[in-house]
Amino acid sequence: MVEALREELAxxxxxxxxxxxxxxxxxxxxxxxxxxxxxxxxxASSPDGGPPAPRRxxxxxxxxxxxxxxxxxxxxxxxxxxxxxxxxxxGASPPQPERRSAAASPPQPExxxxxxxxxxxxxxxxxxxxxxxxPAVSAAxxxxxxxxxxxxxxxxxxxxALLAEEVRTCQKCPLHEGRTHAxxxxxxxLSEIVFVGxxxxxxxxxxxxxxxxxxxxxxxxxxxxxxxPRDGVYICNIVKCRPPQNRKPEPAEMATCxxxxxxxxxxxxxxxxxxxxxxxxxxxxxxxxxxTKLRGTWKLYKGTIPIMxxxxxxxLLRQPSAKREVWSDLKEVMRHLGxxxxxxx
Length: 345
Ligand code: SF4
Hints:
The chain has helices spanning 2-26, 35-42, 54-58, 73-80, 83-89, 97-104, 109-119, 123-126, 153-168, 202-207, 214-225, 251-268, 278-285, 291-294, 313-318, 323-336, and strands at residues 186-187, 193-197, 234-237, 272-276, 299-301, 305-310. It is an alpha/beta fold. Strands 1-3-2-4-6-5 form a 6-stranded mixed sheet, sandwiched between helices.
């Protein structure tokens, strides 16, 4: 009996000593919260290295085993750490909160923006392609319009502009030698009427526009009397360059220049052509008849477009009494177009 008490006392003394050593090693306050923790803190082995006595576990945290070697503070911290931290401690260093947050959280707006920008194609690729330089369209290569090729108004304007550029530099006949400007046209390419004269005079040669001298001013009055604005009709000539001393163009000059007029008329497709003077009628239909006989009688251009021959405005300046016939011819044109005009006798 005494021997048993002595053993019990020795066992108790060893447990107290072990607890005190654990306490000194860990600096923890109070007792471990779980018997297994105390057991772990005191060491899994008995002081003699044998297996722990079952009865210690049965005693709970009060079951003090034999003192174990003092645990390191690290080991002690791990022992008291929350389970999650303990499991993290088993492997590599746990990610710091900042690192974990950065890894798990969605990209910040700045990051997204930067990534989106990086993912974007280069700015140049997003931009509309730079307008490629226009192919150099030589005026000389401008397509010729024909009656079989309908064109839009925009195409008409474009092609006429190309044709005008070609005429501007044309040297196909000797008339280019004395010109100041080639004179292509004036007025609307969308007009239903085209007035065709003979060729530029001195004023037209200087200004580069047809019918801008005294004869042109009279023509403007005729056009206004018909109810059209000055530039509401299309006006051009048989030849585009002024003949010297305002002489009549030679047949060869007219023939050489005629493709330009043919292209103009093919593009515009007017309902009526008003031929001003004998040379204009000759250049359009090749007749050599005098204008006195021709005027007031319908002709056809290329079998399709009605032509009304009448006196040239320059003639009217010299012969004002002929205005009555001209007005009669213009009224006939208006009748043909379904328009009415005041009777100006
Ligand atoms: S008159 Fe006609 S063909 Fe002769 S140079 Fe002038 S544009 Fe050319």
